[in-house]
Specification:
Oligomer: single chain
Distance between the termini: 32 Å
Helix content: 55-70%
Number of strands: 1
Structural class: mainly alpha
Largest sheet: none
Shape: elongated
Order of helices and strands: EHHHHH
Radius of gyration: 16 Å
Length: 164
Amino acid sequence: MPTKSLRSNGVVALTLFGSLLFGNACGSTQSSSTTTDGRESALAEFATAADVVCVRASQRFVTLPDPDGPGNGAKPIGVGGFMHDMADDLRAIDAPPSIEDHWMAGLALLDQAADKLIESEAAAAAGDLARAGAAQGGALWSLEAEAQEHFAAMKAPFRACFVE
């Protein structure tokens, strides 16, 4: 297990990852569009299913080893693998056709971010902090931010996932 940790000013959801995926569990200010074809109902059911996955994942997230304690800057060890698992669980939820492209694109970007975080941990463990920082930065500031754009574009009434 790597002993070196990278510091990040985390941002997109959990703090980047935390808030990106788990957001504000108290509720969302996002709302879905009202249509007569049941889109609102389908989006609400979809968002509820995703929120269940995110709440379960948040319970697992807090059990990941954190080299400097929760909220102190370094990402917990194993975040990349955790993100892959969560993306797989979310991918198992059928998105309504009207948002499926955004859903799949967002999850693909989370998988790419997870790969970058795995690369970052490996580089940090090998003492290559420059490469580790670049990989982590790419995951948190680029890939996860782009994923968030897809999730926000869905206008699904999430309450625990992807809430800014």
